[in-house]
Write a structure and sequence with these properties.
The protein is α+β, with helices and mostly antiparallel strands. It has helices at about 5-15, 80-95, 115-120, 135-145, 165-170, 290-300; strands at about 25, 40-45, 55-60, 65-70, 100-105, 125, 150-155, 180, 190, 205-210, 215, 225-235, 255-260, 265-270, 275, 280, 355, 360-365, 375-380, 400, 405, 420, 430-435, 435-440, 445-450, 460-465, 475. Helix content is about 15%, strand content about 25%.
Length: about 475
């Protein structure tokens, strides 16, 4: 579909002209030291025993975080693809923060973009927008001019007219106005260019991106002497896009860059593929290990940690994701510490208890109260019957009716049904308690209620850990079994 039609469709669907811009890595060539650490953070931990969950508490910042990140997003984001990316980011960054020594706090309150609050953070992140209030714009500009750092993604650079903030669009990003986009979202081969940038350390000459819509700009980024291109779409990728009217067949398209006068990175990715009719996410931004490495190494460089990192494969069981209904969103002006790795003390048997889906009143049960292998695992009204009583023998398994929760036919992909099978201590029967989620050791995916449903007899599966309500499980203990 043509660009004009897409923008009109977005205006109807989204209520605003929002085309997605993949976060281009803009990294300064000379990164100075970061500011001092603050006194309080939030620490979240999980007890392995069913029914014992330790919630967030304030504690002195002794968790070892080397820098603090404050991420802004638009909670009223009406493009489902952008909202999907926001939710993914709000889960993924806290998940990897602990192993990379930073804290990550997200907020949709843009009034927190002020000098006093920004003094607590070494890096500011824009997930899906930029400030439109003059005082907030000036606070961010002053922050950057005084040594602050920034990372932006996709639509955080989008604009029809740069006159609403000339410094940001023309000087800082160097883009000018939005020019065109590819469609539909695609995964492309990216050429790594600036080998002096910490973001590219250890990466091969080309990497495979995650799926995204891609933006181009009114200004020629390569002609701007202040910009350094970190990554661009490799010539082997053409054509880019699947819609004939919005396919790029040739050209030069930088997608990650930095401005040598600032500590910053812009990433042109950050638009998940969607089934708009069903509001269903079809791809994930943090699904490319090499692109994740690019992001994390860039972020560590911005935060003053100039070292090669190995990003956790998405998803992983380390460290814990947030435990609140709105992942990793803190209303506090003080930075929130990432959660620690799930407790490794799953060595003692746990009491029998129910696994409840959030506050829905639905419990996980063995279908039909069936002790046979290959029985489905599903949701149903909580009854405290034997088919809803789960326990662990200490090796990470979840057991009911003498069988262990497992994956059908050893499947490891999204949508693999969860079934019951004879206990054999295989990795497909091991489930790590991570925040409010259960992560399967073999697949790296989360226990998930199919199609986000809560109705009785909704079957369970494993799915990419996206931290949605259908992946959040509340554990209760001391349930009273009934007769079969």
């Amino acid at each position: 579909m043509k660009l004009s039609r897409k923008k009109k469709a977005y205006a109807v669907l989204l209520g605003a002209p929002a085309l997605c811009a993949a976060a281009v890595l803009a990294l300064g060539t000379s990164w100075g030291s970061t500011g001092g650490q603050r006194s309080t953070t939030q620490i979240r931990s999980v007890d392995a025993d069913i029914g014992n969950v330790t919630h967030a508490t304030d504690a002195p910042e002794s968790s070892g975080s080397k820098f603090n990140v404050l991420a802004f997003y638009d909670s009223k984001q009406s493009d489902p693809a952008h909202a999907s990316f926001d939710e993914e980011a709000k889960g993924w960054f806290p998940q990897v923060a602990g192993s990379h020594n930073f804290s990550w706090t997200a907020t949709d309150d843009w009034s927190k973009l002020n000098a006093g609050n920004l003094s607590h953070y070494q890096v500011v992140m824009f997930l899906d927008d930029y400030p439109h209030v003059k005082d907030q714009q000036q606070a961010f500009e002053n922050y950057m001019k005084n040594g602050g750092a920034w990372m932006g993604f996709h639509v955080s650079a989008y604009n029809d007219n740069p006159s609403d903030w000339p410094w940001y669009h023309n000087t800082f990003l160097g883009t000018g106005a939005f020019k065109s986009n590819s469609w539909e979202p695609t995964s492309e081969t990216l050429k790594i260019e600036d080998r002096s940038n910490p973001a590219t350390r250890g990466l091969p000459d080309t990497i495979k991106s995650s799926t995204s819509e891609w933006y181009s700009w009114d200004q020629d980024l390569r002609k701007n002497p202040d910009l350094r291109i970190i990554a661009s779409i490799d010539q082997s990728s053409f054509p880019v896009g699947t819609d004939p009217a919005q396919t790029w067949r040739k050209g030069d398209f930088p997608v990650v860059w930095t401005n040598k006068h600032y500590k910053m990175i812009y990433n042109n990715f950050g638009h998940n593929a969607m089934d708009y009719a069903k509001n269903k996410t079809l791809s994930h931004t943090f699904a490319s290990e090499q692109q994740d490495q690019l992001v994390l190494q860039g972020l560590e460089g911005l935060g003053g940690v100039d070292s090669k990192v190995t990003p956790a494969k998405n998803p992983s069981t380390s460290p814990s994701p947030p435990m609140s209904p709105s992942p990793s969103v803190s209303s506090s002006s003080a930075p929130a510490s990432p959660s620690p790795q799930p407790s490794s003390s799953v060595t003692a048997p746990v009491k029998a208890g129910q696994v409840m889906m959030g506050t829905t009143g639905k419990c996980v049960e063995v279908s039909g109260n069936n002790e046979n292998a290959e029985s489905a695992v599903q949701l149903n009204d909580c009854t405290k019957g034997d088919s809803q009583l789960w326990s662990s023998n200490g090796n990470g398994t979840l057991q009911a009716l003498g069988q262990c929760m497992d994956l059908q036919s050893g499947g490891l992909k999204d949508g693999t049904p969860v079934i019951m099978a004879p206990c054999n201590a295989s990795s497909s029967q091991q489930w790590a308690r991570v925040g409010h989620m259960f992560v399967n050791a073999a697949s790296g995916r989360c226990l998930d209620a199919k199609d986000k449903k809560t109705a009785n007899e909704t079957k369970l599966q494993v799915w990419f850990c996206w931290y949605g309500a259908n992946q959040r499980w509340h554990l209760t203990s001391n349930a009273s079994p009934s007769n079969k």
